[in-house]
From TrEMBL:
<dbReference type="InterPro" id="IPR029063">
    <property type="entry name" value="SAM-dependent_MTases_sf"/>
</dbReference>
<keyword id="KW-0489">Methyltransferase</keyword>
<protein>
    <submittedName>
        <fullName>Class I SAM-dependent methyltransferase</fullName>
    </submittedName>
</protein>
<dbReference type="Pfam" id="PF13649">
    <property type="entry name" value="Methyltransf_25"/>
</dbReference>
<dbReference type="InterPro" id="IPR041698">
    <property type="entry name" value="Methyltransf_25"/>
</dbReference>
<dbReference type="GO" id="GO:0032259">
    <property type="term" value="P:methylation"/>
</dbReference>
<dbReference type="GO" id="GO:0008168">
    <property type="term" value="F:methyltransferase activity"/>
</dbReference>
<keyword id="KW-0808">Transferase</keyword>
<keyword id="KW-0949">S-adenosyl-L-methionine</keyword>
<feature type="domain" description="Methyltransferase">
    <location>
        <begin position="28"/>
        <end position="127"/>
    </location>
</feature>
Length: 243
């Protein structure tokens, strides 16, 4: 995670222009909330925040972070395929966030389409969906590889080297894997290593835009650059964009 997004305030700052335009008490859904930095930052602004994640551990961490910062929000363990059943009865959301490259964990084009459909359905008439993604075109061009961090990263007084092991498949629609290892260098010079292997199903930027249109959303902003590592897409309900 970039240094600037390690705090709730820093995570919100990345979406400053959009957040500043929200009305007081706007309803916000942070879908795939992870450790909760963005959700807690939004709640600290007085927004009505619901944070969901398919991982019960991430939902708990978000709840704990909210308590640490003295803010109120709703946390739920909810996967994308459960969103409609769990949240359809709620008032619609002014903004739905799906950030941190989360969408690539939907298991292929069909599951990704279903996830986008559920998010779109939960939006108010004037609502926006905010997505961030890796530039998968760039990732696949580089092929399978081992990326070792060029320097030590310091977190909470501990130093570590981060290693990314990319396993890139021949076809776009195949399950790809990314193993992330954190090798912590201790005070006595020994190394403690922890790793996690993630599955992902990459997609082209134009495929994402096409699917957004298909679920009733119109792209208002798109920072895609084929040479940049990440991009952000903001989409609105078509009836609003046309109005």
């Amino acid at each position: 995670m970039p240094e600037g997004k390690l705090t709730p305030a820093g995570s919100v700052a990345a979406f400053g222009d959009l957040v500043e335009r929200l009305p007081p008490k706007a309803r916000v859904l942070d879908c795939a909330c992870g450790t909760g930095q963005l959700a807690v930052g939004l709640a600290a602004l007085g927004l009505d925040v619901t944070a969901t994640d398919a991982s019960a551990a991430m939902a708990r961490r978000t709840h704990q972070l909210a308590e640490q910062h003295g803010v109120s929000l709703r946390t739920l363990r909810v996967s994308w395929d459960e969103l409609s059943d769990r949240l359809d009865g709620s008032p619609p959301f002014d903004v739905v966030f799906c950030v941190g490259n989360s969408l690539a964990h939907a298991e292929g084009a069909s599951a990704r389409f279903d996830a986008l459909t559920a998010m779109s359905r939960l939006l108010s008439r004037d609502g926006h969906l905010v997505l961030t993604s890796r530039t998968w075109e760039l990732v696949r061009t580089r092929g399978s590889r081992l990326d070792v961090g060029p320097r030590l990263v310091r977190r909470q007084g501990r130093d570590a080297v981060v290693v990314y092991n990319w396993q890139i498949e021949q076809r776009w629609d195949e399950e790809h894997h990314l193993e992330i290892a954190v090798a912590q260098v201790t005070a006595d010079g020994s190394v403690l290593t922890r790793s996690e292997r993630l599955s992902c199903w990459p997609f082209r930027q134009e495929e994402l835009v096409s699917q957004l249109h298909a679920v009733g959303l119109e792209v208002e902003s798109n920072t895609f650059d084929p040479d940049a590592e990440n991009y952000t897409v903001i989409a609105a309900k078509k009836e609003r964009a046309q109005g």
